[in-house]
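To assess whether ligand presence alters the predicted conformation, the chain was also submitted together with calcium ion. Input:
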Amino acid sequence: MGDPFGDGDPGDGEGPVHEVTLAPYLADETAVTNAAFARFVKTSGYVTEAERLGVSAVFHLAVEAARGDVLHHLDTTPWWVAVKGADWRHPAGPRSSIGDLPHHPVVHVTWHDAQAYCRWAGKRLLTEAEWEYAARGGLAGRRFPWGDELHDGGAWRLNVWQGDFPARNTLDDGHLTTAPVKSYRPNGYGLYQSVGNVWEWCADRFDPAYYATFPTDRPATDPRGPDHGTHRVLRGGSYLCHDSYCNRYRVAARSGNTPDSASANVGFRCGNSLAS
Ligand SMILES: [Ca+2]
């Protein structure tokens, strides 16, 4: 695990590189889709945290809402707009819907929402270590799920940002916001879009100092993250990632947010333990 290139922001704690041993497990091939999440909601009556709050964050170029529903731009990241009525059914705001997006990843879901879905599905969130191992697709120590170069023979392999962030997107990869979950070629383990498209919640708490606590003389076994902390791990980066401000679309990249946070570029992928 970890970044051997020194690509990451030191504040993210992508190093030191360390060896981890994992019990066999399963990882879903895609992030959870709108169609799958709709089945969960229909069956369980679950209401997401963003729906209860009545507001969530939408990227400024994608907002579909009446002027009165556009509340304010976020202070330190003004490309994020707080939109009344933005939620998983209305990913760009009240005037949007998921009618044409059944195969897109569900967004505006918090870590708590992700936990609820996974339990309903008889699954669980992946640990951060499980996520990274699965995302690498068998290519240990590489930068991306397909190798070290962002461009693989000129074709885009992931959905990130192209152009001048945050004002102009040239759409070279075909998508301003989310792409269907089975876009682009899967990695060596059959996982689609482990990097790019949407950030994916992991089970663990997030602490940039966590990797430094691993033993140097033996592999850690099934690490489950820090025991305490306010944030949960997010992995994989999103359609907003761009080298100019956020190169966190690499397999080693780490981020986190509070478990009640939702936005239009965060989703999740489930996994499961193998029955013994
Ligand atoms: Ca894109």
